[in-house]
Amino acid sequence: MTQREDVSNSLSLKVVGYNIHSCVGNDGLYSLERISSVVGRLDADIVCLQEVEANNLLPGRPSLTRIWSRCHCDDQAASIANLSGFEYHVFVPAIKSLVVGKLQERHANVSRCDVSGNHDDPDWVEEQEGETKASGTDLNSLMGRFGIALLSKHPIVKLRIHTFQRYKKKTLRNAIACLIRLPDGTLIWVANTHLGCHFSGREQCQQARELAAFVSSLEQDNETRGVVVCGDFNSPPWFRSMKVLRDSGMCDMFESPAAAASSGSRYGGTFPSSCRLLGVPTCFERLLRLDYIFLHHSGRRIVCKEVHVDDGANSCVASDHLPLIAVFSLH
């Protein structure tokens, strides 16, 4: 079991953040099985995934959703959850997309029925099967969904979604938060996001302000244990977006005492994953830090006791990012 108890009877919760690059590895190969192998090996309670696709299941018509992806007819979140042993999952796309030229994509807005998964939130009952299947041959019917997902071994009892305001003509981005019920009844919010990638950092800063407000709005009471926030923030530590989040009360786990006590790099370099194979010196890894796990404080009821980057051989090939792992103690 992944739900553990230490000598002080506190609960231990392992959370992973992982940008899976649409299941396309550094070798250019598309492999759901390889990503699922990495996720399964990490033996986490909760996994937050970014760059996840769910393509329409049209017979003989696999979709190419993003220009870096490959043609397939997979619901990646559902497949990874099944292959790596997660009973609950939710997939929330930010856009629908279809590659229509060499470097050209056609995007469309998503709707409530594009959200999918296996969870216990009565406010998010799935639409009838006939309403979610694609039909026809128009561009919209061929579009795949692209966004973020959360996998959990424990029930997801609430789902909250926030779509960021579009920055200029950049791709829409979003954030989700799931209230997880642990085996002893403890409740904890876990949020997942994927911020924009504007070189100036202005897009990320705008989205960070919205994310901070979204996290602060989550219902908390005496039964909840704070908010863990995972994601690909497309922001090195010195970007203003990181200051916005820190000033809002979020604690970066790689700046916590747990980082100093954990094995491996203190800087949390996760991108590009191939740098580990190339032997890039650890002192340069801070330049490659784009993925974070934050803790939004809620008293002393949840503490990070370990944080590290997984750089196993298959992790260095399966995606262009490495998984980021944090283990929390809940009192």
From TrEMBL:
Kindly state a single biological-process term from the GO annotations of this entry: GPI anchor biosynthetic process
Q: Can you cite an annotated GO cellular component?
A: membrane
GO MF entries = catalytic activity
Where's the Endonuclease/exonuclease/phosphatase domain? 18-321
Q: Which PANTHER family match?
A: CALCOFLUOR WHITE HYPERSENSITIVE PROTEIN PRECURSOR, PGAP2-INTERACTING PROTEIN
Name the UniProt record assigns to this protein: Endonuclease/exonuclease/phosphatase domain-containing protein
InterPro entries under this entry? Endo/exonu/phosph_ase_sf (IPR036691), Endo/exonuclease/phosphatase (IPR005135), GPI-anchor_lipid_remodeler (IPR051916)
Instruction: Kindly give the Pfam families that the UniProt entry links to this protein.
Output: Exo_endo_phos
